[in-house]
Amino acid sequence: MLTTHAAQLIAADRMAEAQRHAAAARLAAIARCCQPSTWARAARRATAAVTALRNALRSDRPAATPCCA
Length: 69
Known about the structure:
Elements: H1 4-33, H2 36-60
């Protein structure tokens, strides 16, 4: 049986995935119509944003040790 909390988690995951796809589509549109220097700046900004987000998410989670260690 699907609980309300589980349904909210699934919905949030799907929304985040849709936002990632939309962001990728926007970057692809930029790549198609812009000069290479503009694309390079946009790619650097996107990479920096993703790196910052990953670092923030990692700091929220406890460090897990590998099972084979």
